[in-house]
Each structure stands twice: as C-alpha cells, then as structure tokens.
Amino acid sequence: xxxxxPRGRPKGRAxxxxxxxxxxxxxxxxxxxxxRVQTDLPSRAEAIRRMVELAVKMKKKSDGH
Length: 65
Hints:
single chain, mainly alpha
C-alpha cells in the first residue's frame, strides 16, 4: 500500500512569483515571431523572460557594468 502524498506545492521550495500584464496584439506578434526562431520554441512566458534578460544584459554592457 502506498502512502498518498499531500496536495499542493512541496514546502520549503522556492517558488517563482506569478505576474500578469496586458499587452497589445502587436506586442504578442513580436513575441511570437521571436519565439518561433528559437531552437526550442519557448512558451510566451519563457520567451518574455528571455527577452527581458537579454535586454538587461545589453543595457549593462552599454553602461559599462
């Protein structure tokens, strides 16, 4: 007989925080166009995370950090 695991997220594990935003159709098209040329076809959420990370890295480089 197997013991049932408790429902929900495991305790003590770091969780990402949810974030929602409203965007235009043009913004979504831009994100979708970008994600389609990625080798792993990320989700929209993952594509936006990657695009933001790239922008931050570019900004740091241009600022000399």
